Structure formats: C-alpha cells, structure tokens
Amino acid sequence: MTTHGGFEPVFCTIVPPHVLDRLAQAEDPALARPARRTLQRDAFERTQRRLTTVIGATAAAAVADGRPQRTVHDARHGTDLPGHKVRGEGDKPGKDATVNRAYAGLGATFELFLQAFGRDSIDGNGLPLKATVHYDRDYNNAFWNGEQMVFGDGDGEIFLDFTIPIDVIGHELAHGVTQYTANLTYFGQPGALNESLSDVFGALIKQYTLGQTAAEADWLIGAGLLAPRVTGTALRSMKEPGTAYDDDVLGKDPQPATMDDFVRTGRDNGGVHINSGIPNHAFHLAATALGGHAWERAGQVWYDVLTGGELRQDAMFVDFATLTVKAARERFGDGEELDAVSKAWEQVGVRTL
Fold this sequence. Notes:
The chain is α+β, with helices and mostly antiparallel strands. About 40% of the residues lie in helices and about 10% in strands. It is built from ten helices and ten strands. Strands 1-5-6-4-2-3 form a six-stranded mixed sheet, covered by helices on one side. Strands 7-8 form a two-stranded antiparallel sheet. A two-stranded antiparallel ribbon has the order 9-10. Helix 1 (about 15-25) runs antiparallel to helix 2. The longest helix is centred in the N-terminal third of the chain and has 27 residues, at about 30-55. The protein is globular and about 55 Å long. It starts with 11 loop residues before the first strand and ends in a 6-residue tail after the last helix.
C-alpha cells in the first residue's frame, strides 16, 4: 500500500518488504532468487492495484443474509487472477489441503466478524469472499489487493504454505475491513495502525477459532509459517514485539514494544510493519489485563473505534489511543475496561488526550 488518503483499495502483503530485502541479499541463490522474484511480483501487483483504482473494478454481487459466499481459485503456479475455480460455497472439501485451508480461513474470518461484532462480511454488506491459492512459483507472500486474497506456496526454505496460519488469512482480510471503514493512510503512524489492526483481528480470528482466552493465546502472527531452518517462531509477536525471530539470514525482528524505541525510517512506507508493534503491544496488554475472550471486550473497543466514524485517515497513535479510551467508557462505563485500556497505552508510552 503506497497511496495516501482517499478511498482507494490498496495492495497489502503479510511479509514486510524489509524481510524480503534481506533475503534478496543472501549469498545462497536458493534463498535470494525466490525473494527477488517475490519483490518483483509484489511491485507488479502494486502497480496493477493502482491502475485498477483509476479505471475501476467490477463490483461483486453481495447478499447481506448473514452467510458467507466463498470462492477459492487455483492459479496453478501462474499469476493470472483469479485463476481456475476449484471450490465454491457449500462444496465439500477436496484433496488439496491448501484449498481447504483457504476456504476454512475465509469462513473463520466471516464468522468472527459476524458473531462477535455483527458485521456481515468485510464490507458489512455481505461482500463475497474470494481467494486464489498456488500463486506463482516459490512466491513468498500472501496479499489482499483490494478485491481478493492471494496465497503463495512459499519457497520451502524460509517460508511454508501461506494458508497454514489462519491469522495470516484473517490479517489480510482485515485490511479489507479497514478499507471499507476508516481507510487509514498507509504511511507512518496511520499505516502502522492499519497494520496493527490487521494483526489484532488476525489474532482474534485465530483465538476465536481455537476457543482460546487471552491468557491461553500465543499472540504470535504467522506461527507455523517459517520453515524449520529459520530460527524463529513467527513473523511478529504481539506479546513481546521484537522477539519473533533472530536468524542468520532474516536478521532480528525489528519491532519496538514502546515509543521509547520508535523507529524513524523512510522504508516500508515509514515503517508500517515495524512500528505496528507498539499498538499491537497495547492491545495485548489491555486484552490480557481484562482476561477472558479478547474479542468480547478489548476487541470490541478496537472494533468500535475502527468502525465508529471518528477515526481519521491520518490518525496518529495518540488519536487512536484517545478514541479507544472514549469507546471503552461509552460501551462499558468507568470500570475495569476503561482502566485496562488507559493503562495499556500508558505502558507503551502513548499518551491519551
């Protein structure tokens, strides 16, 4: 996502550019080639997204009836989207585990937003959910392009199949929710909030699917995605930002947990995948302080802010934090929810007005 302002569907990937940049410089061609190929493909898809925004895209027919409308396509290792339809809504599982995981992940995302927040699909109006699997060869990413989900199979050296972690599916579809609501600018702190909100709802989808409480959850984004040779557990940790991986090839997880370590950079759209660790950590602190199921109270507050109409496209951390305090008070009163949310932001060094 590189556009600033305006309602523009954008291109969002789960693997940050700085990770692929590092891999592209690896001495081992088996690591460098897939990373370079992925960076080139991402650049192409990002340009395609901008062109589609200019000329307009065909709107999908939506039926707001509280039921998902899922379609999974197979790119057959090509790059034409959406590819060949392999499973539609209500079809029985086939032999391809990747197709089945994508279908289930779309359903889990739909279910969380409907049951926890009363939202009918990512646009709130029954938008059909479309996904493409087996995209390109050795493609080390998954993305939301403003219209659908796309999953690579990974190179098998650093990344495995991108449909394995359900929170990756939820993360990318949550970009669609942000697209249809606050439409946060994808640069600097607003962009980091955009990324953080996708991590928050990706984590909630995983916890909802597993029936986990905040205390039981691992708070990892992308657990199971890294290949065995990688020294790490996931792409990001909401519980302990900066600890997800520390690898000879990937380097060390650069995410800060508090404003004391805020990273100022012009890369990665102003560090959107890096500084998202700060609001991520704030959510984790609020959710674990409250206990129980994180989507019921902390998640509800974050959802209220995202969809409430007061969150500006250029919102900074302080703006978002202030709105969460307001939302906690409006929904739950002056009780433990308000206290947990206020203290969480204080702990990560973000003031509230």
